[in-house]
Each structure stands twice: as structure tokens, then as C-alpha cells.
């Protein structure tokens, strides 16, 4: 008979005083599996399916459990920009535009038309009062906020004009006039970076808007001049001018000729 364990010397195992008892390497036999029994006919089956009833026998995996369930396709999430635009539209999608009743909405529209007539006749103070009354009756109409922003610009109320233009642009992001009014107010307050952002937003809504294109060019030019007029750059320019050698009087400055190619 072969011994089941061998005594081997190991210098690495110190827990058993240098001796260890490894296995002999024989594989253990798997325990015999119980025969599958059909719950209907009572017949045993080695395949797991009864040949008489066709049912899965006890002790065997059923056909349904072995089948994999099909994976459901993941729903494609909307893009962040589109989702934001849809949220804004749903937020301001109000047929009465914030009015408490249909009568208030009609009165607000009449006041807005009267304000437009006063604006055309250059009665800016009266137009502003009419727009103030209209916006109280119908606070979610972006056209009233935009018209009041334009009137405030004419009256040089630039802070109020900027607030009204911002609200109009938030309510109606695809309105280039709202972004144009906001860009003008930002430009007047010296916020050239913010003004340039408003111009880009308006051009995104209407790329061929000439007023926004011209304003963007002007704001870019002003921003470049502002960056060039920083104290560090002015000092560097002054040092360059002071350190440049001057040609003596009565002599033309020497200009190096360009090198000729071989």
C-alpha cells in the first residue's frame, strides 16, 4: 500500500519543527449525483428531462433557468444642451405668460402696444411707465422685458437695461435682439469678456445678424487694446524704446540685408 502522506524536510516551514505533511497528490472522487426524478411520471433521467412527459426532472436545471434573458437596450440620454433648452422652453411655456387671467393678458398687450407707440414718438419716459405696468400684469412675456431694456438704454439707465436684457435672454435664448441689448450693456460697463459672450450667444441663434457681427468686432478690438495697455506691457514697451540704439545725427540708420539662399 502506498502511504497517503509523506514526511518531507522543509527548511522554510518552522511551525512544525522543520517537518511538513503534504498531500500525496491523489484526487478525491466526486460524490455520486442523485438521479433526477420527474415530478409527473416519477421516472429517473440522466439527461435532466423526462422522456415520457418532457418535463424537467428534480435535481436538474430547468431549460428556462439555463436560457439567458435578452438585455434591454439602453435608452439614449438627451444631450445636455438640448436638455437645457427643453427645460427652459417647458419652464416658460405658459399661454398666459404669467398673467392671472385672460383679461390681464390682453390688458398687458395693449399697454405694450401703447408703449411701442410712445417709443416711436421718442417719449421714452411715458413708454417706460407703460412697460412697467405691462410687465406687472404679464411678467413672463420676454418682449416686454426687451422693450423696457431698450427704453432704459435710451434713458441711460444702464443697470436696469442690463437686468431687463438678461431676463429677456433667459426667457428666450434664441432671440438675438435680447443678446444684442445685453452685449451693449456689458460693453458700456466695461465687462468686455461678458459682452463678447453675449455676442457669441446671439450669433449662435442668428449667425447672419449684422448688428451682432459689428458689435463683436468692436468688442474684440477694445479687448485687445485693454490687454495691450496693461502696466507690465507698457513698461516693457518703454524699456524697449529706451534701450534701442539711435542713429547719429545726419546718418541714416543701418538696416541689415536679408541673407541669400544657397
Short description:
With 262 residues, the chain is mainly α. The chain has helices at 63-66, 80-92, 102-120, 124-137, 142-154, 158-171, 176-188, 192-205, 210-228, 231-243, and strands at 8-9, 19-20, 36-37, 44-45.
Measured between the Cα atoms of the first and last residue, the distance is 97 Å
As a percent range, the share of strand residues is: under 5%
Tally of contiguous helical segments: 10
In angstroms, what is the radius of gyration?
42 Å
Helical residues, percent:
40-55%
Assembly state here? single chain
- Give the ordered list of helices and strands: EEEEHHHHHHHHHH
Can you tell me the overall shape? Answer: elongated
**What is the typical, i.e. mean, pLDDT?**
74
Protein architecture, described:
This protein has helices at 63-66, 80-92, 102-120, 124-137, 142-154, 158-171, 176-188, 192-205, 210-228, 231-243, and strands at residues 8-9, 19-20, 36-37, 44-45. By secondary structure, the chain is mainly α. The longest helix has 19 residues, at 102-120. 23% of the residues are buried.
List keywords for this structure.
single chain; 262 residues; mainly alpha; two-stranded antiparallel ribbon; two-stranded antiparallel sheet; 10 helices; 4 strands; elongated
Amino acid at each position: 500500500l502506498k502511504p497517503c502522506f509523506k514526511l518531507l524536510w522543509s527548511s522554510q516551514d518552522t511551525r512544525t519543527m522543520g517537518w511538513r505533511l503534504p498531500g500525496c497528490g491523489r484526487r478525491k472522487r466526486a460524490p455520486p449525483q442523485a438521479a433526477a426524478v420527474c415530478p409527473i411520471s416519477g421516472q429517473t433521467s440522466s439527461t435532466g428531462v423526462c422522456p415520457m412527459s418532457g418535463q424537467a426532472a428534480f435535481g436538474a436545471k430547468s431549460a428556462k433557468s439555463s436560457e439567458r434573458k435578452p438585455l434591454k437596450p439602453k435608452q439614449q440620454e438627451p444631450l445636455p444642451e438640448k436638455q437645457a433648452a427643453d427645460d427652459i422652453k417647458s419652464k416658460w411655456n405658459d399661454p398666459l405668460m404669467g398673467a392671472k387671467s385672460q383679461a390681464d393678458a390682453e390688458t398687458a398687450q395693449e399697454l405694450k402696444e401703447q408703449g411701442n407707440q410712445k417709443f416711436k414718438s421718442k417719449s421714452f419716459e411715458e413708454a417706460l411707465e407703460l412697460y412697467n405696468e405691462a410687465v406687472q400684469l404679464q411678467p413672463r412675456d420676454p418682449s416686454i422685458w426687451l422693450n423696457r431694456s431698450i427704453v432704459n438704454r435710451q434713458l441711460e439707465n444702464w443697470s436696469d437695461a442690463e437686468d431687463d436684457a438678461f431676463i429677456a435672454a433667459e426667457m428666450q435664448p434664441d432671440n438675438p435682439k435680447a443678446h444684442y441689448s445685453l452685449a451693449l450693456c456689458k460693453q458700456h460697463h466695461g465687462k468686455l469678456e461678458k459682452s463678447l459672450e453675449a455676442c457669441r450667444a446671439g450669433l449662435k441663434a442668428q449667425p447672419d445678424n449684422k448688428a451682432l457681427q459689428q458689435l463683436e468686432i468692436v468688442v474684440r478690438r477694445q479687448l485687445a487694446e485693454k490687454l495691450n495697455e496693461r502696466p507690465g506691457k507698457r513698461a516693457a514697451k518703454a524699456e524697449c524704446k529706451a534701450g534701442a540704439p539711435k542713429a547719429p545725427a545726419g546718418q541714416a540708420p543701418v538696416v541689415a540685408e536679408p541673407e541669400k539662399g544657397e
